[in-house]
């Protein structure tokens, strides 16, 4: 026999685990399982496990997820909602994106108001919540200290988001919650072949950019929305009607329409 033996599969703790694993995932279930095993960012691994071990008093009886949190929503979604990262005592506790924290309470209530969620609350996996035509995800899948991933952590995690969006073959629109998600998403779209305007579009609440189709993909609507963080909601920088308005417009251009 000639040639070299195949390279061994990457270890979950290796920095190149996302980059070598994500492109070979053939479906969202396979991708989600791979995401949940990732240990590529030592700082994030240490933090998520520390939080899961110490817990918050209000959740002392919980068995924390304490791993990377995969996206949530159906494979035929035509709309994606991209946030920042799981919350330490939200997704890092429950194991589902935007579930169990204040931001998620606002987001899922708004999705329900638009007709894209079966119920207005998301408290834990197995609570019966079903999303209609929308998938919720983030550019960083581990809870970061002080909700601030580093640029390096964002870049290491990027292949997961790139593959997730590529597997959503009917994707028509993306709502980006906050400037971090916006900046993380643009290189993903660029690499996927979408022609980004020059200069690159700037994030802002209500921003709406239409990207021409790439290959066999239709045009993509990119919409900006302030993140439904506790601070933004408390200061009324983002109100519930503002969030519902953006999600409603996204549903319209995604072909979902009112439900």
From TrEMBL:
Q: Which Gene3D superfamilies match?
A: Uracil-DNA glycosylase-like domain (3.40.470.10)
Instruction: Give every Uracil-DNA glycosylase-like domain span.
Output: 70-247
Specify residue ranges for compositional bias: Pro residues.
Answer: 1-12
Keywords attached to this Swiss-Prot or TrEMBL record, sorted alphabetically, are: 4Fe-4S, DNA damage, DNA repair, Hydrolase, Iron, Iron-sulfur, Metal-binding
Q: Enumerate the residue ranges of region (Disordered).
A: 1-21
Keyword hit for Transferase: no
Q: Which InterPro entries match?
A: UDG_Type-4/5, UdgB-like, Uracil-DNA_glycosylase-like, Uracil-DNA_glycosylase-like_sf
A Pfam family it matches: UDG
Q: What family is this?
A: Belongs to the uracil-DNA glycosylase (UDG) superfamily. Type 5 (UDGb) family.
Q: Which protein, by its recorded name, is this?
A: Type-5 uracil-DNA glycosylase
Specify the species.
Streptomyces peucetius
């Amino acid at each position: 026999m000639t040639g070299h033996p195949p390279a061994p599969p990457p270890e979950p703790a290796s920095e190149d685990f996302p980059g070598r694993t994500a492109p070979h995932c053939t479906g969202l279930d396979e991708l989600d399982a791979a995401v949940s095993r990732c240990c590529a960012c030592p700082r994030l691994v240490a933090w998520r496990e520390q939080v899961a071990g110490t817990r918050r008093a209000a959740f002392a009886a919980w068995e924390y997820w304490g791993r990377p949190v995969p996206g949530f929503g159906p494979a035929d979604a035509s709309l994606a909602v991209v946030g920042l990262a799981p919350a330490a005592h939200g997704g890092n506790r429950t194991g589902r994106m935007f579930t169990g924290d204040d931001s998620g309470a606002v987001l899922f209530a708004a999705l329900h108001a638009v007709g894209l969620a079966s119920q207005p609350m998301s408290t834990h996996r197995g609570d019966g919540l079903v999303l209609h035509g929308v998938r919720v995800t983030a550019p960083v899948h581990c809870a970061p200290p002080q909700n601030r991933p580093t640029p390096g952590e964002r870049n290491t995690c990027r292949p997961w988001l790139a593959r997730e969006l590529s597997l959503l073959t009917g994707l028509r629109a993306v709502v980006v919650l906050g400037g971090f998600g916006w900046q993380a998403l643009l290189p993903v779209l660029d690499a996927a072949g979408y022609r980004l305007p020059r200069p690159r579009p700037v994030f802002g609440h209500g921003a709406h950019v239409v990207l021409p189709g790439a290959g066999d993909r239709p045009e993509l609507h990119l919409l900006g929305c302030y993140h439904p963080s506790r601070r933004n909601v408390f200061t009324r920088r983002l109100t519930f009607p503002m969030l519902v308005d953006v999600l409603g417009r996204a549903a319209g251009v995604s072909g979902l329409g009112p439900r």
